[in-house]
Amino acid sequence: MRESIGILWRNWRFCNHNNMECRELTQRKDELQENLGFLEKVKEKKEFSMLLDSLVLRVSKKAKEDVKGTRALLRKYFTVFLTNKLLNGKLAPEEMLDKHISSKNRDYQKLYERILNPSETVIDLGAGVNGFSYSLMPLHTKYVAIEATGQLVVLMNDYFKKNKFDSRAVHLDVFDLDEVANIIKNQKKPRIVLMFNIIDALEFFEKDYSKKLLIKIKELLSSGERIIISFPTQSLSGKTKFHTTRKWLMDFLEENFSIVDTFEENGEKFIVLEK
Ligand SMILES: C[S@@+](CC[C@H](N)C(=O)[O-])C[C@H]1O[C@@H](n2cnc3c(N)ncnc32)[C@H](O)[C@@H]1O
User: Fold this and answer.
1) Atom of ligand 1 nearest to the CA of 100
2) Looking at the domain 84-274, which fold is it?
3) Closest of 20, 110, 77 to residue 236, by C-alpha
4) What is the rounded radius of gyration, in angstroms, for the C-alpha atoms of the chain?
5) Which of 136, 182, 222, 248 is deepest in the core (most CB within 10 A)?
6) Nearest-CA neighbor of 201 among 51, 76, 80?
7) CB 103 within 8 A of CB 97
């Protein structure tokens, strides 16, 4: 966006201000400038400073473009998982996993023994801090994290580099379907796509987006390659048990995929899918 306003500004300066095309350009430039002002305001707070612009703007639509409302939703869906301890980068990998609300109850060793095989490429959508579990993945795993929170992307990439792990984290919005598809397409086979505890956030911002995403991923996978979805069966704090069956999701999965395994571990349900 910051680049496109430069191009727009230049085109606008040199256009003929009486014609229709130029009036449209003026309107577009004003809208972009307004968005930039809004983004700057929201991102003044450090916790939101490294969120993707596209994502902040999408969230702002849900909050009727109100700065406070936008920050409240961003906190709920993105930064609630972050603590200062987690962000200062001084924790050991297992402590990183322990300090993130979404991963702290997971037994990664047991989980990976059940769902991963050696020499696979793992593409993790909305990865959180999962990259810090790399050393628990099977031998010769290549790991690619896609994550909207810039601070986590930086922390994971520092960790991968320091340990020379065959991994990287990409700062990307999962709603950028073409780019997500490109990343999956370009990875070495066999691939496995993880979508742990992310469906609710996707559905909040766009109903049925997870279905669209799953169908797109299905098109890209070869037979035997897998998608693994998880969702909480209790609140992330562990205090409340949910009674939701997510029938809409289960019906969709049964209709469109072959469900090869389902299991529940520590308040989280996992569903393993093949095309
Ligand atoms: C509940 S956490 C789950 C983290 C991890 N998958 C796990 O289960 O431990 C949701 C994560 O998804 C990320 N996220 C949510 N929406 C996203 C989007 N549209 N694009 C990229 N990341 C997103 C959030 O920043 C957050 O780190």
Assistant:
1) 9
2) Rossmann fold (3.40.50)
3) 77
4) 20
5) 136
6) 76
7) yes
* Separation of CA 81 and ligand 1 centre (Å): 9
Of 104, 36, 41, 33, whose CA–CA distance to 69 is shortest?
A: 41
192-230 residue pLDDT tens: 999 999 999 999 999 999 999 999 999 999 999 999 999
- Please check the confidence at residue 156 and state whether its pLDDT lies above 90: yes
Task: Cite the DSSP H helix spans in the chain.
Answer: 2-13, 20-42, 53-62, 67-77, 84-87, 93-99, 108-115, 150-163, 177-185, 199-205, 209-220, 247-256
Compute, in angstroms, the gap from residue 132 CA to the centroid of ligand 1: 15
> Does residue 103 line the site of ligand 1, with CB under 6 A?
yes
Instruction: Express each pLDDT in 95-124 by its tens digit.
Output: 999 888 888 889 999 999 999 999 999 999
Query: Which ligand 1 atom sits closest to the C-alpha of 152?
Result: 27
Residue 151: per-residue pLDDT = 92
**Residues 164-189, mean pLDDT to the nearest whole number:** 97
**What spacing in Å lies between the alpha carbon of 199 and ligand 1's midpoint?**
9
Per-domain residue ranges of the chain: 2-77, 84-274
Is the Cβ atom of 126 under 6 angstroms away from ligand 1?
yes
**Cβ neighbours, 10 Å, residue 137:** 21
Q: Measured from the CB, is residue 52 less than 6 Å from ligand 1?
A: no
* Pocket perturbation via mutation, ligand 1, pick of 179, 198, 229 by most ligand atoms within 8 A of CB: 198
Which residue's CA is minimally distant from atom 12 of ligand 1?
A: 126
Contact between residue 228 and residue 162 where contact means Cβ atoms under 8 Å apart: no
